[in-house]
Write a structure and sequence with these properties.
Blueprint lengths: L1 H4 L3 E5 L15 H14 L10 H22 L2 H4 L4 H12 L2 E4 L2 E4 L10 E7 L2 E12 L7 E8 L25 H7 L3 H44 L21 E9 L3 E10 L3 E10 L11 E5 L6 H7 L17 H20 L2 E2 L8 E3 L5 E3 L6 E2 L6 E2 L3 E4 L6 H6 L1 E2 L1 H16 L11 H9 L12 H10 L10 H10 L45 E4 L2 H7 L22 E4 L9 H4 L33 E4 L6 E2 L8
């Protein structure tokens, strides 16, 4: 019988709470037992008379005393007839709701005489008992979810097994030591804990994949929207298909070509007329591309508005002699009203680009074209860049830039914003006021770079209106945030229709003297302009008259159909004109001798049509441009040549 009983487990209520547990009186159980022993000794009782039942008696008295106190506090009438059924029922109800820590543990009854107390887990072995662990039950009276609990003490090493080797038998029971705390917290079996953990892990992985998919999808959609907006802005998107341009195409029989304007690396530009349903026959410039890119028949025609008066700089230089006429205001071509209207057209164009979040980066008179109605339109968008969600475009590589028209932040940091275009607009106003004067005359490009970065600006011509002087100074404010917007400038010019007035000193030499290689200068009568020093050194040109070299270059120079000029020079000897030692030019030769971002004249009686582009093999640097390096390792100025950006 003793062998049969060896190893069996039993449970008992704990006889006393832990000595460090605090009772309802504020003292610990250990202090209470010490006080009880001292009290017995003081009254000359044997201390051993305080046995395990002393705590039960103490807690029972406290239960009745606490219940009676609550009964009196609720209604004193219960005391008048304490033995009545009404009083007893209320008394029992109060006892059932009692919950406090006593000497023997937690005093809390569960709808009956039994109370919740810690349970000892005991193993009987060899006629001795060994405490294996202690279980603490929990009961939620509000939710009535039943009795739950937890092991507050477990001594597995004290557990003895009745096997031959006295070790735990290997019965292939599932072991979930990793998820044991998880299973215990949910009060579920190990198998259920593994299943729930697997579902949670799978759901987490699925959520991460879904999150990544949503992020990638949003980025893709944002990129597609940006691409669609750019294509729509370029007129390459129709409601039906991106691959077809039927909405924008013109029937070939509605286009008539009547003269050749120029030829470049990518095709030929013709002058002609096109028929439109709304306007009838309109003068146009037609650019023909190389074969292989048209949607219907070869070659494809690109039809654009024909700008009769060419670029604004040539327009101003050609009419410079009219400024000193007595009846200048009666001449619509050079009147204050006309000049202000032209400046207003450019300001509106800049405001339009700013609204579309584009920065032009090359605002100058040479890049503004004048149509037959003398309306000025921005052109040469080869350097235009989108800003997308930012408010700026950062140039972080090396390339050829128009240093004389650039703002300090663009020169120093390669930072281009609509406000840097406003700075360039101020230089354009200077060109208009002086009727084509070259900015920063007397300074080389390198000197201009350091001059502007040091906080200096162009010298404002004397004799201009105070309001116009204020406008120029605001456009050239060193702090870009303090410059006016293009829309504000347009509003100012609208309200002051005669604000722009010319201010010139003497005529500028703008043509090469026949059979010489120099410009005709008048340095002796040229008045100094402010702080900018003037020199008397002429700018030299040289002629390299090899016909075969011209023919080779005629197909390699880039051109732009938006930069179409009327005939300004003929070259009977088919000379190739290059700039040599160009350091202090007085004027922009690109507009005066028909060289617009190019260095060759194609053929007799044909004038140049070109624009800044990528991939040209020419080493020609337009006046006012300098090669800058804004890469991470760049040092600013690059002494050698680089391709235009």
């Amino acid at each position: 019988m003793r062998e049969a009983l060896n190893g069996h487990l039993s449970v008992l209520h704990v006889e006393s709470a832990h000595p460090n547990d605090t009772m309802q009186t504020g003292e610990t159980v250990g202090q209470w037992r010490l006080n009880l022993k001292n009290e017995l000794e003081r009254n000359h009782f044997d201390p051993h008379r305080a046995n395990k039942y002393s705590g039960y008696v103490y807690d029972a008295i406290w239960v009745y005393a606490y219940a009676l106190d609550q009964l009196i506090k609720q209604n004193k009438s219960y005391i008048q007839d304490i033995h009545s059924e009404r009083s007893m029922n209320k008394f029992v109800e109060i006892i059932n709701n009692i919950d406090f820590k006593g000497v023997t543990g937690r005093i809390n009854f569960i709808n009956g005489p039994s109370r919740l107390s810690n349970i000892r887990i005991i193993q009987w072995f060899g006629n001795e008992t060994h405490e294996i662990g202690v279980y603490e039950p929990e009961y939620n009276r509000q939710t009535s979810t039943g009795i739950k609990g937890r092991l507050i003490e477990w001594n597995a090493h004290k557990l003895r097994w009745q096997t031959l080797n006295h070790r735990k038998p290997k019965d292939h029971a599932k072991h979930c030591s990793i998820l044991s705390s998880f299973a215990t917290s949910l009060d579920i079996e190990c198998e259920h804990a593994i299943s729930i953990a697997f579902l949670i892990g799978f759901g987490t992985l699925l959520g991460i994949i879904l999150f990544i998919f949503v992020i990638v999808k949003r980025r893709y959609e944002r990129k597609m929207r940006q691409t669609e907006e750019r294509m729509r802005a370029l007129g390459l998107l129709t409601p039906t298909s991106v691959l077809t341009l039927d909405e924008w195409e013109i029937h070939r029989d509605r286009v008539v070509l009547n003269r050749k304007l120029g030829e470049g690396a990518f095709g030929t530009v013709y002058g002609g007329e096109a028929f439109f349903d709304e306007k009838g026959w309109v003068a146009v410039a037609v650019k023909t591309l190389k074969t292989g890119v048209c949607t219907r028949n070869e070659p494809v025609y690109t039809v654009m508005e024909f700008m009769l008066y060419g670029d604004l700089k040539t327009y101003l230089l050609a009419r410079r002699h009219l400024v000193n006429e007595i009846n200048r205001e009666e001449l619509d071509e050079v009147s204050n009203r006309r000049l202000t209207s032209m400046a207003l057209d450019v300001a509106k164009g800049l405001a339009y680009l700013a609204d579309l979040k584009y920065v032009h980066r090359d605002i100058a008179c040479r890049n503004c074209l004048v149509n037959s109605s003398r309306i000025v339109k921005l052109a040469d968008f080869g350097m235009t860049r989108p800003m997308y969600e930012n408010d700026y475009y950062r140039f972080n590589r090396k390339g050829m830039l128009p240093v004389r028209w650039m703002s300090p932040e663009s020169l120093a940091d390669g930072l281009f914003t609509p406000m840097s275009d406003v700075w360039s607009y101020g230089v354009l106003l200077y060109e208009m006021i002086t009727f084509g004067s070259f900015p920063f005359q007397g300074l080389s490009n390198n000197q201009v770079l350091e001059h502007v970065k040091a906080g200096n600006t162009l010298s404002i011509p004397s004799g201009i209106k105070a309001q116009l002087e204020t406008l120029l100074k605001s456009c050239w404010n060193i702090a870009s945030t303090k410059r006016p917007t293009a829309a504000e400038i347009a509003e100012l010019l609208t309200n002051n229709a005669r604000l722009i007035s010319p201010c010139i000193d003497v005529p500028l030499a703008s043509v090469v003297v026949e059979r010489t290689d120099s410009l005709e200068l008048i340095p002796s009568v040229r008045k100094p302009s402010g702080s900018v020093s003037q020199t008397n050194r002429p700018v030299l040109l040289y002629a390299a008259g090899k016909r075969n070299r011209i023919n080779e270059d005629s197909n390699t120079a880039p051109y732009s159909p938006m930069s179409i000029y009327p005939p300004s020079i003929t070259s009977p000897n088919n000379f190739r004109l290059d700039l040599k030692d160009l350091k202090e030019p007085l004027i922009s030769y690109s507009n005066n001798i028909g060289l617009h971002n190019n260095n060759n004249i194609n053929s007799k009686n044909s004038h140049n049509v070109s624009g800044g582009g990528v991939g040209t093999s020419s080493s020609y640097v337009p006046p006012g441009y300098i090669v800058l390096d804004h890469t991470a390792n760049g040092g600013g100025l690059i002494p050698d040549m680089a391709s235009p950006i």
